């Protein structure tokens, strides 16, 4: 009798059971999420909204480029879980329409996790969000200074500021423009300022990641101030060694980003 190889059975991870909510419970969760959004300068500036569908809660952002239709991107999904301890599941989606668990807890806890994200799971601007919560009444930005190596610190603190904090407080960029290279943030690449023009109207930022073999790779964004305000232009890495080469490449492409 011949041998027949038995391959191990592939089992799919069982999805947690969804708890059915009353209308009152749904309303309460939406109110809690909206309060968390209102308390977050970053989430407010990016226009994050809550949508309820099929018993779940979705955090969404609408954006619109000039001359194009409104685009809605889903940032996160929150699912009420069935069990002895009622709690909510926070997930993030990917391009394959699959969802990955980020955290579990109550609505107030989960929206804080989204607001404070500094890795790029949702936006990567968590440290900027924290600094904006420290603004006093009548204060738009916190005073900051730049050293010779393009490092940034607040005038009343020794701790080094993040690139996103510097772009907002020192250079004056709007939050939505800082967040535009969303792909680089979602890949959890670390931004670093590699060059600043003398008039501080052009800032070249490189998003770096290192592979297991030690090889560095990433993407580049040129933040540039024009007559109509600040803009973010992603640039082909091989064409972004300096601000001059990045601008030349963008001009050749009629300022069409990579």
Q: How would you describe what is shown here?
A:
The protein has 258 residues and is α+β, with helices and mostly antiparallel strands. It has two domains: 23-115, no CATH class; 130-252, no CATH class. Helices cover 25% and strands 30% of the residues. It contains eight helices and eleven strands. The chain has helices spanning 23-39, 41-45, 107-115, 126-132, 163-169, 175-178, 182-186, 243-252; strands at 49-53, 56-63, 71-81, 87-93, 99-105, 144-146, 152-154, 190-196, 202-210, 216-226, 229-235. Strands 1-2-3-4-5 form a five-stranded antiparallel β-sheet. A four-stranded antiparallel β-sheet has the order 8-9-10-11, covered by helices on one side. Strands 6-7 form a two-stranded antiparallel sheet. It starts with 22 loop residues before the first helix and ends in a 6-residue tail after the last helix. Mean pLDDT is 87; it is low at 1-12. Residues 1-12 have a biased composition (Basic and acidic residues). Residues 1-20 are annotated as: Disordered.
Q: Element order, helices and strands?
A: HHEEEEEHHEEHHHEEEEH
Whole-angstrom Rg: 22 Å
| Biggest sheet descriptor | 5 strands, antiparallel
Helix content: 10-25%
| Residue windows where pLDDT falls under 50 for at least 5 positions | 1-12
Principal-axis shape: globular
Strand order within the widest beta sheet: 1-2-3-4-5
Instruction: Give the mean pLDDT.
Output: 87
**How many separate domains?**
2
Please work out how many helical segments DSSP would assign: 8
Which structural class matches the secondary elements?
Answer: alpha+beta
Count the strands?
11
The fraction of residues in strands falls at 25-35%
Distance separating the two termini: 61 Å
């Amino acid at each position: 009798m011949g041998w027949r190889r038995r391959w191990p059975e592939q089992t799919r991870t069982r999805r947690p059971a969804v708890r059915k909510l009353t209308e009152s419970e749904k309303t309460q969760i939406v109110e809690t999420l909206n309060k968390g959004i209102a308390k977050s300068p970053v989430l407010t500036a990016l226009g994050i909204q809550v949508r309820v569908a099929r018993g779940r809660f979705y955090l969404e952002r609408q954006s619109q480029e000039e001359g194009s239709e409104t685009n809605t991107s889903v940032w996160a999904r929150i699912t009420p879980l069935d069990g002895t301890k009622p709690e909510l599941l926070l997930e993030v989606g990917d391009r394959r329409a699959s969802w990955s668990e980020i955290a579990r807890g109550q609505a107030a806890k989960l929206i804080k996790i989204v607001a404070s994200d500094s890795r790029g799971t949702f936006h990567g601007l968590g440290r900027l969000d924290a600094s904006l919560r420290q603004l006093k009444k009548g204060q738009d930005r916190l005073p900051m200074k730049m050293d010779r190596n393009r490092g940034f610190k607040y005038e009343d603190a020794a701790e080094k500021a993040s690139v996103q904090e510097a772009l907002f407080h020192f250079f004056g960029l709007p939050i939505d423009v800082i967040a535009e290279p969303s792909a680089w943030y979602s890949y959890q690449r670390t931004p670093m300022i590699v060059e600043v023009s003398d008039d501080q109207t052009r800032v070249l930022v490189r998003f770096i990641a290192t592979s297991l073999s030690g090889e560095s790779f990433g993407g580049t964004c040129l933040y540039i101030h024009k007559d109509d305000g600040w803009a973010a232009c992603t640039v082909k890495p091989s064409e972004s060694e300096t601000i001059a080469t990045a601008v030349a490449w963008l001009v050749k492409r009629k300022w069409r980003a990579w």
